[in-house]
Amino acid sequence: MKFCPKCGAKVLVPEAKFCMECGFNLDNLKTLTNDREISDMSSVLNIDKQNDANLEMELQVCREYAERGYTLAKEKYVEMQQTLEDERQKLLAADKEQSQMSRLQNTKLIEEQKQGWERLANRISKINEDIEMLHERQKDFSIIIYGRTMAGKSTLMEILTHGNGASIGKGAQRTTLDVRDYYWNGLRITDVPGVCSFGGAEDDRLAFEAARSADLILFLLTDDAPQAGEAECLAQLRSLGKPVLGIINVKMAFDMNRRDLSLKKLRRLLEDTERIETICQQFKSFAKNYEQDWQDIEFVSTHLNAAFVAQPERGNDEDVFAASNFAQVERFILDKVRTDGKFLRIKNFVDIAAVPICQIVKELYAHAGNSLIGSKVWASKAEELMAWRETFIERIQKRSDEFAEHINKIIENEMEKFVDENYENKKAGEDWEKKVNSLNLPQKFNAFLQEVADECDKKRKELSDELTQELKYHYSGSTDFAVEMGDTTPYAKYAWHIASNALMFVPGIGWAARIGIGVGGALLGMLFNNKEDNIRENKKKLHDALVEGTNPMIEKMHNDLVRTINEQILEEGVNGFYRTLEDMENLLVNLGTAQSEIATVLCKKYKSLNIELLKETITYTKASAFVSSVDNIARIPGQYFLLVSENCKLDCLNASILLGENFQVKKVKNNYHLVSDLIGDEITPKYFQEYDEDGNISMEAKIYLADKSANTTLWSMAEQIIENPIIMEG
């Protein structure tokens, strides 16, 4: 095996004119060394030898840093797991209390809460799986080649590995269909399926999953118009906190049969740095669509096809290879590994935990804010219902009295007629029963009751509809909080009750017989000699008997009516609905409080993780850098890192480049002022409270309201600073 005297790389073809690793001209040498250690020859040729052994030493140190990163991430995971278990026990106690609310047992909200906890537990467990997976692969520094289909990913891989070109695509078809690992200079290079291809959703997923464990991303673009789909992919990668190096593959047909003309054109294209920079800036401008900043991403241009055809295995053309600028691509990658590789290994482990935790905290604060604001929606409807109830009772009382008077008048009118026609009728009691039955009094009572029930149901339905609409507005359609309160079907519910209780309005057994006895006794007596006096006396006795027998029946029917209104309409319909609204308000306060508490606990753990990353950043930058104290900290991986410190000496530009994030230091100690600066508006606290039976506050939650809507990144950072949900008012 022969080796390059400059860099010690393997020379696979003896007649090669130049080194594929460093571009060194091999024509100056009569023979190639059989040993990598050729210091004497290097000295003779005055060559600054880049020794493979030195890179291997760097990679060994990288592995040691990876172990530190693993230990750090694992410790923070264990802390989070224990914290969540403590919070889970609190929620179990709350669930037990909630399950006793029979009207709420089957609501989607409680089910959502339980499922939400399961999802949270699964997501936290997934963090541990990712940490262990990364630990298993930590011996290798991992680089992922990422780019759209036919951008030149496979060509890049073929050049690095001196392949035969079999994997290079021949047309518009998808060529790299799976994830493939190769090794170059001790680095594991992974070629993933091309993204943004038609029908390539599964390819995109595979590529993204592979990128999650990478220490470094090589993002490959072409110099034709950058696509929005590529920008979306880069935004996803940056959201993982991944450092990115950009490579622009100049797309020009290179014809070795017309070598000189092609070479001249290639040099002209690659020397047009203004055009290439314009393409880079056009692509970076997509970042604002994702609330990101990509100005820190460096790009290097190359012509991959020229580099490929110029390899010793093919054209063996030093000039073409040099013109392709691929040697600069290799130096670009190796310099990043040598300079920042150790830090990137630690950061990779930190971010494998930090990225999902950051998202979880953001979601929990959003859910907490929605739950607490939603509780006020339910509370407002409860208040509205109670206000309506007062006027409803007054109206029903008045209408009930009027209805009773109306029934009494009907009875009195019919009774006068009946007495005039039946004062000598020995079967007056039986006939009066028939007469009363013909008046359809039960139907009249039921009709009145149905009117009252309909009015109640109309209001319930009105409030339910308003509630549904307002919840949709407050939750922005993110969660379907349908108003489910057990059996609250309008009309049918009360109609069933009325029909089942219709017998209560039927006259009691024996009432007519009592009238008959009374009438019989009256007609047998002839107290007066004057016939008219006897008739008058008989009418009076009959009337008194009818009143005595009928009034208790009417009174019973009226009492049953009032009881039905009170028990079934007011108590079950109105008061039951109120209790449901109140229960839901309390449930949402409990839920929002629990969500906010869990988010805050995780937020504190997340901050402690980022403080460790900050320490590594300080150590890795200039020796004079220091931070005397961390007053607060907020971070969105891959985007922003905000440090609040009174005394900090740290080069923000260098830190930004190292982290691949916009690093800023603020000296504002007042969290309210800092948050207001972030979201561009003053925030005001809003409290949510629950009271015990003695009127003491048993639970209190807090959110902050803001009028203006900042971008979601700054909004999330503001919540991390204040450790509370922030909701846009109105």
From TrEMBL:
Residues 70-97 form a coiled coil. It holds the Pfam family MMR_HSR1. SUPFAM superfamilies: P-loop containing nucleoside triphosphate hydrolases. Residues 143-249 form the G domain. Gene3D superfamilies: P-loop containing nucleotide triphosphate hydrolases (3.40.50.300). This is Zinc-ribbon domain-containing protein. InterPro entries: GTP-bd, P-loop_NTPase. Keywords: Coiled coil. GO terms for molecular function: GTP binding. The keyword Coiled coil applies. The keyword Oxidoreductase does not apply.
